[in-house]
Amino acid sequence: MFTQIRTLVIYNTIFMLLFVLHIVFAANDYHLLFRVVALLITVMTFFSGPICMFIEPIQERYKTIYVQGLLISIPLSIGLGWAYSDMSVGLEMILFPLITLTIHGTIRQSSIGLTYGLK
């Protein structure tokens, strides 16, 4: 059972660790470290499908993991948009999910067919 969710557990653990770190760094005025962690959170949000592909060791699960990563990235990107618009409703909450859908769709497609994360 754990092997079915192993990749998502690893991804979510890394994401949660970074999220906690960004709160700690912001509270302690470690501006550079906060920005680095915020950038990593942003990359993990927009590229969750490919990152999950990189973590997944079983090739037969690439398609499933890629789609699960995409589905995870949508609510994360809405939250990221809320954070980038100074913790209020803003245009970023609409744009960021569209950006993540575009990124995932573009990476999935290639001239040789479906690549599911270019792996």
Helices and strands in order:
Layout: H1 2-27, H2 31-46, H3 48-55, H4 62-84, H5 92-108, E1 109-110, E2 113-114
Antiparallel strand pairs: 1-2
Helix pairs in contact: 1-2, 1-3, 2-4, 3-4, 4-5
Structure, described:
The chain is mainly alpha-helical and about 120 residues long. The chain has one domain. It has 5 helices and 2 strands. The chain has helices spanning about 1-25, 30-45, 50-55, 60-85, 90-110, and strands at about 110, 115. It has a two-stranded antiparallel sheet with strand order 1-2. β1 and β2 form a beta hairpin. α1 (about 1-25) packs antiparallel against α2, α2 (about 30-45) crosses α4 (about 60-85) and α3 (about 50-55) packs across α4 (about 60-85). The longest helix is centred in the N-terminal third of the chain and has 26 residues, at about 1-25. The chain starts with a helix and ends in a 5-residue tail after the last strand. The model has no long low-confidence stretch (mean pLDDT about 90).
Task: Compose a concise summary of this entry.
By secondary structure, the chain is mainly alpha-helical.
Essential attributes:
119 residues; single chain; two-stranded antiparallel ribbon; globular; mainly alpha; 76% helix
Shape: globular
Low-pLDDT runs: none
The mean pLDDT is 89
Q: What strand order characterises the main sheet?
A: 1-2
What's the total count of β strands? 2
Structural class per helix/strand content?
mainly alpha
Q: Tally the structural domains.
A: 1
Helix count from the secondary structure assignment: 5
Order of helices and strands: HHHHHEE
First-residue to last-residue Cα separation? 24 Å
